[in-house]
Amino acid sequence: MAAGKTKSLFSLSALLASFFGAAMIAAAFAYFNYKFSEYKFIDFSQWVFYQEKAIFIPDEPYYIVVFYSSKTPGTVEKLSRAKASYPIIAIDYYQKAPPSNANIIFLRAGTDTSLKFIQRFNIYHSPTVFTIKKNKDTLYKQDSMIRELDTLDGLSAGI
């Protein structure tokens, strides 16, 4: 080493590299945390929905969930005729549940469960549709974006 020249323990490039590395790790963590929280879970063992006179227990790997208003004319009839790639679960805002058929499962719930459902999935419009996927037992995870349907005929095209 030449006299009078000392080598810095921390160089500017090492400092910038460590800062950049920490920023990348923080950005990746924030992104994956956001993506994980973007889709929500529903546990049918904690939220009770009724299918006619029995408690609904899901058994399919996927469902299409439709939150709708029976006060809108023709909605129930259109839902009853809808065909989709997965079974359809229809939950009425006014808690009227006509008999289920091969295409659709009409559910109703108590006020507390309905409010929790609306809040959990941030439902602001009717009809609203999204898919859920079985995670384990009665725990299902939202598997699509929540969309407002312009017409219920859009279910026939699938989600």
Written overview of the protein:
This protein is of the alpha+beta class and 159 residues long. The chain contains three helices and nine strands; from the N terminus they run H-E-E-E-E-H-E-E-H-E-E-E. It has helices at residues 12-38, 75-81, 111-120; strands spanning 41-43, 49-51, 54-55, 62-68, 88-92, 104-109, 128-136, 139-142, 147-148. Strands 1, 2, 3, 4, 5, 6, 7, 8 and 9 form a nine-stranded mixed sheet that branches. The protein is elongated and about 90 Å long. The relative contact order is 0.19.
Helical proportion, percent range: 25-40%
Distance between the termini: 70 Å
Mean pLDDT score? 83
Please tally the helical runs, counting DSSP H or I stretches of 4 or more residues: 3
Radius of gyration from the CA trace?
Answer: 25 Å
Low-confidence stretches: none
Task: Tell me the series of helices and strands, N- to C-terminal.
Answer: HEEEEHEEHEEE
**SSE class:** alpha+beta
State the total count of DSSP E strands. 9
The profile of the biggest β sheet is: 9 strands, mixed
